[in-house]
Amino acid sequence: MHEISPAWLAMWTNKLTLRKYKLATKKLSRPVSVLLLSDLHGAGLGAEQEKLFKNVRQINPDFVLLAGDIVDDELPYPPAFALLKKLGKNYPCFYVTGNHEFWCGRHRSVQDRLNEMSVEGYAHTGMQASLNKKAYRLKNSLHRDGGTREKHPDAYPHGVNSLKRELEGLEITVLEGKCATINIKGARFNICGVDDPVAGEDVYIEQLAAVKTYCRPDAYNILIAHRPERIEQHLKLGFDLVVSGHAHGGQWRLPGLVNGVFAPNQGIFPRYAGGLYRFEETSLVVSRGACKKNTRVPRIFNPPELVVINIMPN
To answer: CATH number of the domain that 77 lies in?
Structure first.
């Protein structure tokens, strides 16, 4: 029998990883720990999510940011609800929708699936042509299998508005063009969030305009927005920190060389696949997602992750 090298094992590992980032600000006098979770897609990590929640207890964050696609439209929702129930009971939690939550309770059309592969504005025509071929093959396969993969019997059966209200019943603060203000360790945090753009572009722009009004110079201002490729819009709003998901770490990574090969709505070699990105007045943290096997494309050198953002006094 051939021995499997550690490097080969690392390539395919599904072990949950803890990723830490550190930020500094003059708005705090004491350190604050923030947990960012995105793109769980209903994945289960242990019975009743005990393995995942054990990691959360060890982190013991001051509050939790949920950046969308925690619930999947085609996969079982009870594992996601089991985790959200534990989180809501023990920590202040703030939630925004991703595209998959908006697809809950309805049939996803071929166009929905093709939009996932959108690379609008991508300059390299050769790459665009290659992606167009892939989209064409996907479109044909979707027509053959009825438009999408089969929904699991335990997929969330209702629409996104019902989902939001159920999450509020689990003591999760749902942000849809709104903000919540909390005081942690003597510091004021404005935590704002917007729905995924599949809610409608007009809705998305209205929500961005609404949350902008909540930014205050005496508070640390955070925006939760599922899609990192929209960062140019978010930078105009005056937030100290923006957190996102959606890109799944670019699915395939070559550590030290390529930070992701392909991401929805960004295309080949995405700029914002996962990590910490610093701009003049704003920092962007993109989670690579916590899903293990619930994606169509396998993750290579790209384990699922929990993200901890330690915000320190400057």
So the answer is: 3.60.21.10
